[in-house]
Design brief:
Blueprint: H1 2-13, E1 27-30, H2 37-51, E2 60-63, H3 70-79, E3 86-91, H4 92-99, E4 112-126, H5 135-144, E5 151-154, H6 160-171, E6 181-184, H7 187-195, E7 201-205, H8 206-214, E8 219-223, E9 249-256, H9 262-275, H10 279-287, E10 295-296, H11 298-317
Parallel strand pairs: 1-2, 1-3, 5-6, 5-7
Antiparallel strand pairs: 3-9, 4-7, 4-8, 4-9, 4-10
Length: about 325
C-alpha cells in the first residue's frame, strides 16, 4: 500500500518519469518567402493545433529564405539545435535537394524528422490567356521551340520543380539542361512571375496554384498523378489521363533540431498524431488542397531516408 501511494504521489509531482509538457512557446519556421509550400505547411499545423486546442497560444510562423530550405536547415542545426518548441517545414523537395548535396555538409541524418501532415502533387500551369490548352499542346509546342517557353520553378536546376519540368521536356524530346529555367524562391514567386508574364510555364505544386486556377489567374494543364483527384481538382486532368506516365506526389511535413530532447520530440509526434484525428485538422488540410498522408515518428523517418536514397538515383540518371 505504501509503495502504491508513493508511486501515485511521484506521478502527480512529475517525478515518476519525464512529463510530456507542451513547450512554453511553439514556432514554425518556413524556409522561403511567404506564400509557398513551406508557409502552407506551417499555417496548416499552427491553425489546426490551435483550433483543436492542442496548443495554448497561437503558433508563431517565421520565414528564412535561401536555397529553398537550405539556409533554414543549416540555421537550425547550427544555431537552434535543441529548441524543443521549434518545428521546421519540409517536403519531399527537401529530400531531393539533400540527396544532391545542396543543403551543404548536412545530410538527411542531421535533424529529427517528426511527421508528414498531407500530400500534394506536382502541376504544370500556364497563363489564363495562353494558347496552350492541354499538356499535349504544351509538349508539342515545347518540342518545336523550347526557347519560346521560359520555365519558372521554386529552386535551382535539380530542384523538385526543375525535375518535374525535366520529365515533361523528355516527353518533348528536349534535353532538360537546355530549358530556359528561372530559379525562383518558392511557389509564391513562381505564380507571381507567371501572372506578370516573366515566364510562360510554371512548374509547382497543386496546393499552391489551385486557388489562382479557380480565380482564373492561371490555368493548370495537368496534375502529376496516376489518378484523378477529388474536390477542387475534380475537373483538372492528370498526366496519366493525357497519355503521359509522369507522377510527382509531394509530402509536406516537419522536422526539429538534432539536439531536441526525446521528451520534446515525443510531445510533437504524439500531439500531431492526436491532431490528424481531429475534424479541425481535416478541415484545415482540405482547405489547403492537400490529401491525407499521415506518417509520423519512426515511420516518417524511414520514409524520408528512403525517398532521399531514391532521389540520389534519380539525380544521377539526370546527369546532375
Amino acid at each position: 500500500m505504501r509503495k502504491t501511494l508513493l508511486f501515485a504521489a511521484l506521478a502527480l509531482t512529475g517525478l515518476a518519469g519525464p512529463a510530456l509538457a507542451q513547450p512554453a512557446k511553439t514556432e514554425c519556421l518556413a524556409g522561403a518567402k511567404p506564400g509557398g509550400g513551406f508557409d502552407l505547411t506551417c499555417r496548416l499545423a499552427g491553425n489546426a493545433l490551435h483550433a483543436a486546442k492542442l496548443i495554448k497560444d497561437p503558433m508563431a510562423v517565421s520565414y528564412m529564405e535561401g536555397g529553398v530550405g537550405a539556409v533554414a536547415y543549416n540555421h537550425v542545426i547550427g544555431t537552434r539545435p535543441g529548441d524543443g518548441g521549434l518545428v521546421i517545414a519540409a517536403s519531399s523537395g527537401s529530400a531531393l535537394l539533400i540527396a544532391q548535396g545542396k543543403f551543404g555538409k548536412h545530410d538527411e541524418n542531421a535533424v529529427r524528422w517528426v511527421g508528414a501532415l498531407g500530400t500534394d502533387f506536382g502541376v504544370v500551369a500556364v497563363a489564363p490567356d495562353s494558347p496552350i490548352k492541354t499538356l499535349k499542346d504544351l509538349i508539342a509546342a515545347f518540342g518545336k521551340d523550347p526557347g519560346a517557353f521560359p520555365v519558372g520553378g521554386g529552386g535551382a536546376v535539380g530542384s523538385q520543380d526543375w525535375m518535374k519540368m525535366a520529365m515533361i521536356a523528355k516527353e518533348a524530346k528536349v534535353d532538360p539542361k537546355k530549358m530556359r529555367y528561372a530559379a525562383l524562391e518558392g511557389g509564391g514567386a513562381v505564380t507571381t512571375a507567371l501572372q506578370g508574364g516573366h515566364i510562360k510555364i510554371a512548374s509547382g505544386d497543386a496546393s499552391e496554384m489551385i486557388n489562382l486556377h479557380q480565380q482564373g489567374k492561371l490555368r493548370i494543364l495537368a496534375v502529376m498523378s496516376d489518378r484523378r483527384l477529388a474536390g477542387a481538382f475534380k475537373d483538372i486532368p492528370t498526366t496519366y489521363e493525357q497519355g503521359y506516365t509522369i507522377d510527382w506526389p509531394i509530402w509536406r511535413g516537419l522536422y526539429v533540431g538534432p539536439k531536441v530532447s526525446d521528451a520534446d520530440y515525443k510531445w510533437w509526434v504524439d500531439t500531431l498524431t492526436k491532431l490528424t484525428k481531429t475534424d479541425e485538422f481535416v478541415k484545415e488540410r482540405e482547405a489547403r488542397g492537400l490529401f491525407a498522408f499521415d506518417s509520423l515518428g519512426a515511420d516518417f523517418d524511414k520514409r524520408v531516408k528512403a525517398d532521399t536514397a531514391k532521389f540520389r538515383a534519380l539525380a544521377k540518371e539526370a546527369g546532375l
